[in-house]
Amino acid sequence: MNKETYCLLEDFMLSCMEDAAHDKEHIYRVLYNALEIAKTRNDVDYDVLIAACLLHDIGRKEQFDNPALCHAMVGGERAYQFLLLQGFEMCYAEHVKQCIQTHRYRKNNLPQSLEAKILFDADKLDAAGAIGIARTLLYKGMVSEPLYSVLPSGLVSTGENDTIPSFFQEYKFKLEKIYSNFYTEEATKIAEERQRIAIDFYNCLYQEVNSSYENGRSELNKIIDFNENP
């Protein structure tokens, strides 16, 4: 891929990015993750991989506006039409499209090509470790969702069986489980290193929050008798 083609794809990507949790820096991290994974292989089509990485989240706005839509499906089709309009060959545009449309974890739509698997892994690495936690917290703030929910007992929920959205719920539902879903050996190794950081952060945050509720409520009950009749 030459500089002119890269800049063409990059400019189109930049015109599409509006989500702070999936901003242009996320795109660059995914691209750099992908290149780090790809260097361990000698059969990668870099023209396809770079294009797919740059354009993989261009359907995010449509999904944000209408959650019924899948940003991967929308983005893949949008990338396909853009590449055809710019004069790229149909088989190339189709390959990029398929990479984009399978980068989101769906059991009935798994990545098939090497480039698609690398994109999938590179994107998931950006949901792992410290960066994954930071992005999740950023997104939760954007949509005004809390860090945690409180159980009827008055203690903080771990998020394990929560139906109410929160950071703890997202960690238990998604972040905790992503570490076994990688296709490439290099990504699996990187993910294992990041997993320890994520586990430590979640455990420390839960312990700090829950101890405040346990100890603080106990002290408050010593001062105020909540069973007292008004």
Task: Explain the layout of strands and helices.
Blueprint: H1 3-16, H2 24-38, H3 46-55, H4 60-65, H5 71-85, H6 90-101, H7 114-125, H8 129-142, H9 167-173, H10 185-223
Please describe the structure with a list of short key phrases separated by commas or semicolons.
mainly alpha; Hypothetical protein af1432; Methane Monooxygenase Hydroxylase, Chain G, domain 1; 10 helices; 0% strand; elongated
Explain what this protein looks like in three dimensions.
Helices cover 63% and strands 0% of the residues. The chain has helices at residues 3-16, 24-38, 46-55, 60-65, 71-85, 90-101, 114-125, 129-142, 167-173, 185-223. It contains 10 helices and no strands. It is mainly alpha-helical. It has 2 domains: 1-120, Hypothetical protein af1432 (Orthogonal Bundle); 127-230, Methane Monooxygenase Hydroxylase, Chain G, domain 1 (Up-down Bundle). The mean pLDDT is 91.
Write a compact overview of the structure shown.
The chain has 230 residues and is an all-alpha fold. It contains 10 helices and no strands.
Instruction: Describe the global form.
Output: elongated
Question: Unreliable segments (pLDDT under 50, ≥5 consecutive)?
Answer: none
The CATH topology of the largest domain comes to Hypothetical protein af1432
Class of secondary structure makeup: mainly alpha
**How many structural domains are formed by the residues?**
2
Mean pLDDT: 91
Question: What's the total number of strands?
Answer: 0
CATH architect. name of the largest domain = Orthogonal Bundle
Distinct helical segment count: 10
Radius of gyration: 21 Å
CATH class (first level) name of the largest domain: Mainly Alpha
Quaternary organization: single chain
| Major sheet attributes | none
Order of helices and strands: HHHHHHHHHH
- What is the straight-line distance between the termini? 76 Å
Percent of residues in helical segments? 55-70%
Strand content: under 5%
CATH fourth-tier homologous superfamily of the largest domain: Hypothetical protein af1432
